[in-house]
Amino acid sequence: MKCIELNMLPEDCVSIIISLTSPLDACRATLVSRAFRSAAESNVAWEKFLPSDYEDIVSRSITSLKFSSKKELYLHLCNPILIDGGRKSFKLDKSSGKKSYVLSSRELSITWSDRPEYWSWKPSLKSRFLEVAELRMISWLEIEGKIRTHMLSPNTMYRAYLLINITHRAHGLDLLPSDTFLEMGNQIISANTAYLSCKDKKKHQMECLFYGNRTQRTKSRVIEGDERFARERDDGWMEIELGEFFSGDEEGDQEVKMSLREIKGYQLKGGLVIEGIEVRPK
Description:
Residues 3-49 form the F-box domain. The chain is an alpha+beta fold. It contains seven helices and 15 strands. The protein has two domains: 6-79, Monooxygenase; 99-281, Galactose-binding domain-like (Jelly Rolls, Sandwich). Strands 1, 2, 3, 5, 6, 8, 12, 13 and 15 form a nine-stranded antiparallel sheet that branches. A six-stranded mixed sheet has the order 4-7-14-9-10-11, with no helix packed on it. α1 (11-19) packs across α3 (34-40). It starts with 10 loop residues before the first helix and ends with a strand.
């Protein structure tokens, strides 16, 4: 059987072959030869790497995206863009093309966030969004976000993270760990506990001493599960993992609920800043 060298194939055929690989492989193919470079940068190849609903996503961007090729559009989308009136952020993973979203605090359900005595809405230089939610003082902390699986890349493991900061006036946040839940359909698939901030150990010890007996009585009400802690990010925020889930195939569509609650301790809490919830590939 006679073998045919790839560089002898028509450029369209090579483009189709490259489109069956990955964006990272396509970039590597540009180094093989001049012919490969042309095929690897073609619209035929890069349209396959874009999500199937890319035209809808581009139309929802709050800024006009200018591009002369599908590869250029792909690279644009590898940097976060604001969509849906600036209430969500969208981006593609550069090496895989998988989709990720950040739901702004305005997209979340935050109990009593419409009451200025409990929550304030303010701009933040660190945030990608116009405003963030800052907890002034409350005893009932409940935050929930929702996303549908058809918005995500199919057959992909995702993790959800609450994006937060803690002000210097923070108090009462970690006397008890918060409960985190991730629900898919009507089934809870992840339930754990999380500490929002334990940076100031002396302050935490003083609060535990002050609330003492109440803390011990209410600890028995906290769900059992892995204890998670806020982790610092490169963008100036901290993140707490809420759970992970599998997006399923393109035919199915389920609602995913992601939440954090601390409603058992009844102590006053304050100084928590919410940017949103990020849903990204694992």
